[in-house]
Specification:
There is one protein chain. The protein has a single domain, classed as NAD(P)-binding Rossmann-like Domain (Rossmann fold), CATH 3.40.50. Helices cover about 45% and strands about 15% of the residues. The protein contains 7 helices and 7 strands. The protein has helices at about 15-30, 40-50, 90-120, 140-160, 180-190, 195-205, 215-225, and strands at about 10, 30-35, 55, 75, 125-130, 165-175, 240. The chain has a 7-stranded parallel beta sheet, with helices on both faces. Helix 1 (about 15-30) crosses helix 7 (about 215-225) and helix 5 (about 180-190) packs across helix 6. The chain starts with 7 loop residues before the first strand and ends in a 7-residue tail after the last strand. It binds nicotinamide-adenine-dinucleotide.
């Protein structure tokens, strides 16, 4: 696989979880990958591993992104986090942080990348959404709100970018084996008053026909395809990778 040789890619939240798998996938396809992450040591370590570059950045600092220009052929908006709480108890500070990281930052990074992509007549934007970009679940109101907003951004970008060879798509995983999910298992056990071991079968995978977590590499493989020239006619789409959860 070397279809992205000579291309530059940026992966937000690229130092951990799904983002690290995506960074490795794109580097494996030949791209020069910038790992953008708040975790500087982890970003540098991965950048060294894949012969890429590290960008230590707190993407909730959206004011710093307003004047940014990005020279990348592939932009992957991946950074995000979950917070489980009923709406009436939801901490407004957490809501604001989520909106900045998962809506405002992707918008501003797309804005920063499009002029370079338009000048070259090609570009790939992949937004890591979620099944929660398409469906809602209780106690995840802010996350569901942010992911639905990301879906809107992705489709609007697809319409504007079409005449310039730029595609924009969402990838919609179910539960993926990452630290984000590990943290949820603890929180779900507490809010459902069950043991952590029961959370996987009885809560997380209760509605999933294929009874296992998605692997980060499986999400990365789909992103690699969407970033490739083969995916030139795929735009404005939302690709589920959820073991059938959204089939119901
Ligand atoms: P993760 O917590 O494992 O990794 C997130 C990465 O983002 C980390 O490297 C972290 O340092 C970085 N990050 C966090 N805050 C940041 C900030 N302010 N600025 C820059 N970087 C920051 O999470 P993950 O599970 O790999 O999730 C990645 C994306 O996939 C998220 O958008 C998430 O919503 C989505 N997703 C995850 C799952 C899942 O089951 N894990 C399912 C569907 C969608």
């Amino acid at each position: 696989m070397s279809d992205l040789t000579g291309r530059r890619a940026l992966v937000t939240g690229g130092a951990g979880g799904i983002g690290a798998a995506i960074a490795r996938e794109l580097a494996g396809r030949g791209a020069l990958v910038t790992v953008a992450d708040i975790d500087e040591p982890a970003a540098k370590e991965l950048a060294d591993e894949i012969d890429g570059e590290a960008w230590a950045v707190d993407l909730t600092d959206v004011a710093a992104l307003a004047e940014l220009t990005l020279e990348v052929d592939v932009l992957v908006n991946n950074a995000g986090f979950q917070h489980v709480s009923a709406i009436e108890e939801f901490d407004p500070v957490v809501l604001h942080r989520m909106l900045m990281l998962m809506v405002e930052a992707p918008f501003l990074l797309v804005r920063a990348a499009l002029p370079y992509m338009y000048a070259r007549g090609r570009g790939r934007i992949v937004n890591i959404s979620s099944v929660h970009g398409l469906r809602a679940s209780p106690n995840k109101a802010a996350y569901v709100t942010c992911k639905h907003a990301l879906e809107g951004l992705s489709k609007a970008t697809a319409l504007e970018g079409a005449a310039h060879g730029v595609t924009s798509n969402c990838v919609n995983p179910g539960y993926v084996r990452t630290p984000l999910v590990d943290a949820q298992i603890t929180a779900q056990a507490r809010s459902n008053d069950i043991a952590e071991a029961e959370v996987l079968d009885e809560v997380l995978l209760a509605g999933t026909p294929i009874k296992r977590l998605v692997e980060p590499e499986e999400v990365a493989s789909l992103v690699g395809h969407l970033a490739s020239d083969d995916a030139a006619m795929i735009t404005g789409s939302s690709s589920t990778i959820d073991g059938g959860w959204t089939a119901r």
